[in-house]
Amino acid sequence: MSVPDSHWSRAVAEDQLAIHLDRYGSRHTLFVTGELDVATAPALESAIDGALDGQDGELFLDFSDLTFIDSTGIRAVMQVHNKVASFGSRMVILSPTAPVRRVLEITGFDRVMDVRDDVRG
Fold first, then answer.
1. Helix crossing, 41-52 with 71-86: angle to 10°?
2. pLDDT tens-digit readout, 57-79
3. DSSP codes joined into one string, 87-117
4. DSSP assigned state of 118
5. Contact call for residues 28 and 57 (beta carbons, < 8 A)
6. Phi and psi of 91, rounded to 5°?
7. Are 14 and 46 in contact, with CB atoms under 8 Å apart?
8. What's the CATH number where 94 sits?
9. What is the maximum alpha-carbon separation in the chain?
10. Alpha helices in the chain (DSSP H)
């Protein structure tokens, strides 16, 4: 059994986004806090590249503290989804806040991606 590994990224774009990574075996969970938009989307993509590091496994994005997402943020999430799928893995969005869930529903991404209210994954 693997030992959990936890990392904090520095806040980016003037404290608009913070990302905390937990690893447990092949499961990686990124806790995303703040706003995911044109200024912060590159930080999410970079954090995910670091979390995956070319490895397969499950990627969980915990959006329980994500307060805002715009079209650039949605595009970043879709690119991450596609990258994870190309590794033969799956990505799950956990517990999106009401405003974020609304954007996922409007864009139809809730029908393309695995979105769960259950934080247990």
1. 20
2. 788 999 999 999 999 999 999 99
3. TT--EEEE---HHHHHHHHHHTHHHHSEEES
4. -
5. yes
6. -120, 140
7. no
8. 3.30.750.24
9. 40
10. 41-52, 71-86, 98-107, 109-112
86: helix, strand or coil: helix
Domain span at 17? 5-116
Q: Is residue 121 part of a domain?
A: no
101/96 Cα distance (integer angstroms)? 5
Model pTM score: 0.82
Report pLDDT digits (tens) over 107-120: 999 998 999 986 55
CA distance 76 to 61: 12
Backbone angles phi, psi at 115, to 5 degrees: -115, 125
- Which is nearest to 41 in space by CA: 77, 95, 87, 3? 77
